[in-house]
């Protein structure tokens, strides 16, 4: 069965809301909502296809766009490759040229709409930021909390609270304080035994590679309305993350790091190859900073994650 190549767009308005369209009842996956786009024609670039489809479907002209995510999905009757770009600027007023209903929705509201299964990773990518802060080791609690507060004030929307010295009561107390700091401002990702999941209902969970190997066969350990992430370093762990139905992963180390100086880095080329075979959002980690986002996007990543390069001076 030939895989159908589709160009699709996450179109953001100036207010941050995202444009979605309802599929006609007569279409494949009819009646569900989708991100606008259409088939890439033979010999056509993805950018050209996207521009053409958005002009035909919505009457807009794309002015600024970048790669967001590629998703391969197999339905019983169809195989698709969704080549998704984020459109941040356009000319014209979007309207359903073909009579299709449109809706501008917030990132938070996306989960209230029914999308085809192939679109679920796109929903996640549209809701996630392009930077992922991982808290540093060796700080006293007051300094750590001040740093988290300052990072959020500076625009960080996704925070992983590291537990480098084991999962002890001090980490639980710190998690309570961090949850309060992040409430309504940023998504907090915790680490720890899965037995703690019920104690922090507003937090997402970031699994270690060891946890991924131990629990992947048991499936997703928490509801879809909570974020689930995993640390991955190779194709095997990415496959386990897919099996466990995580929402996103970190892939590391891309470049040499101070934290793990003896670990062989993946490099940009190998990271790109691994991402190409994985259909979930990927944050690249290891020797990277905010200035590396552009290169990360070009190889298919959601963005970059880091510790020192993202930690504010406190």
UniProtKB/TrEMBL annotation:
EC number from the UniProt entry: 3.6.1.55
Binding-site positions, Mg(2+): 37, 57
Record protein name field: 8-oxo-dGTP diphosphatase
PANTHER family: 8-OXO-DGTP DIPHOSPHATASE (PTHR47707), NUDIX HYDROLASE FAMILY PROTEIN (PTHR47707:SF1)
NCBIfam families in the cross-refs: mutt, PRK08999.1
Any Pfam family: TMP-TENI
Single annotated GO MF: 8-oxo-GDP phosphatase activity
Obligatory cofactor(s): Mg(2+)
Segments traversing the membrane: none
Binding site residues for 8-oxo-dGTP: 23, 28, 34-37, 119
Catalytic activity: 8-oxo-dGTP + H2O = 8-oxo-dGMP + diphosphate + H(+); 8-oxo-GTP + H2O = 8-oxo-GMP + diphosphate + H(+)
Sequence ranges assigned to domain Nudix hydrolase in this UniProt record: 1-130
Family: Belongs to the Nudix hydrolase family.
Keywords: DNA damage, DNA repair, DNA replication, Hydrolase, Magnesium, Metal-binding, Mutator protein
Source superkingdom: Bacteria
Gene Ontology BP terms: DNA repair; DNA replication; thiamine biosynthetic process
